[in-house]
């Protein structure tokens, strides 16, 4: 009885099929026949690519770099020129604005100073006016105050801060009213009853007095001037 052994893949076609080749055996043979032609084409394409790379490296790249560098320098020059123009314009505008502000400020300071001087002048004039209105001697003013006080003490029916005590005569009529302040007599009002009249004599603490005569039928009162003490 004969034995059978596997020798593995012993043909190129078999190896190609195992590696994934999907063509027929005839197609494989045709491909093998054209291999040398394709290899030659690959070598030529490789040389062409290498030549192109060499040419690009030696000429195209330096020229492109030089062109880009030149354009970059041009743009830099333009930017610097534009920047200088802007800086100059800003500087001029700033100088002009500062000048305007200084001029306006000087004008305002001048106006404020003038107005301040005017106000000071007005205040000084008013002060001088007030000073001139103040009397150097207060004797006249004192006399006027004293006279007004006497007028009040004689003619005011109700003296502020005083207590009034009414006294009556035997006939039941008021005979006097005494005005006291802190226990001191300020004024005494004495009544004298006549025929259809009543006379009131008001005497203050300094002895001066006035008389007030009233007609009881008409209620007309006649008042005298202040009389000094006799």
Main features:
230 residues; alpha+beta; 2 domains; six-stranded antiparallel beta sheet; 4 helices; 57% helix
Describe the 3D structure.
Helices cover 57% and strands 18% of the residues. The chain folds into two domains: 10-136, no CATH class; 160-223, no CATH class. It has four helices and six strands, in the order ααααββββββ. It has helices at 12-18, 25-33, 35-133, 139-155; strands at 163-168, 174-181, 184-193, 197-204, 209-215, 221-223. The protein has 230 residues and is α+β, with helices and mostly antiparallel strands.
Major sheet characteristics = 6 strands, antiparallel
Instruction: Give the number of DSSP strands.
Output: 6
**How would you classify the helix and strand content by structural class?**
alpha+beta
Domain module count? 2
- The residue ranges in which pLDDT falls below 50 over 5 or more consecutive positions are none
Summed over residues and divided by their number, the pLDDT gives a mean of 77
Please give a quick description of this structure.
With 230 residues, this protein is of the alpha+beta class.
Give the SSE map.
Blueprint: H1 12-18, H2 25-33, H3 35-133, H4 139-155, E1 163-168, E2 174-181, E3 184-193, E4 197-204, E5 209-215, E6 221-223
Antiparallel strand pairs: 1-2, 2-3, 3-4, 4-5, 5-6
């Amino acid at each position: 009885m004969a034995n059978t052994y596997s020798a593995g893949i012993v043909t190129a076609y078999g190896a190609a099929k195992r590696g994934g080749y999907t063509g027929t055996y005839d197609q494989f043979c045709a491909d093998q026949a054209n291999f040398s032609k394709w290899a030659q084409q690959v070598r030529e394409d490789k040389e062409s690519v290498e030549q192109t790379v060499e040419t690009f490296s030696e000429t195209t790249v330096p020229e492109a770099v030089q062109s880009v560098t030149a354009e970059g320098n041009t743009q830099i020059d333009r930017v610097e020129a534009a920047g200088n123009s802007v800086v100059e314009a800003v500087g001029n505008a700033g100088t002009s604005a500062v000048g305007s502000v200084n001029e306006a400020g000087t004008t305002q300071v001048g106006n404020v100073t003038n107005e301040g001087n005017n106000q000071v002048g007005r205040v000084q004039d008013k002060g001088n006016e007030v000073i001139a209105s103040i009397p150097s001697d207060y004797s006249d003013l004192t006399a006027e105050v004293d006279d007004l006080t006497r007028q009040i003490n004689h003619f005011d029916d109700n003296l502020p801060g005083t207590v009034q005590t009414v006294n009556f005569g035997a006939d039941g009529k008021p005979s006097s009213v005494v005005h006291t302040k802190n226990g001191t007599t300020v004024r005494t009002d004495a009544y004298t009853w006549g025929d259809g009249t009543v006379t009131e004599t008001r005497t203050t603490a300094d002895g001066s007095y006035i008389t007030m005569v009233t007609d009881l039928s008409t209620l007309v009162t006649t008042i005298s001037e202040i009389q000094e003490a006799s």
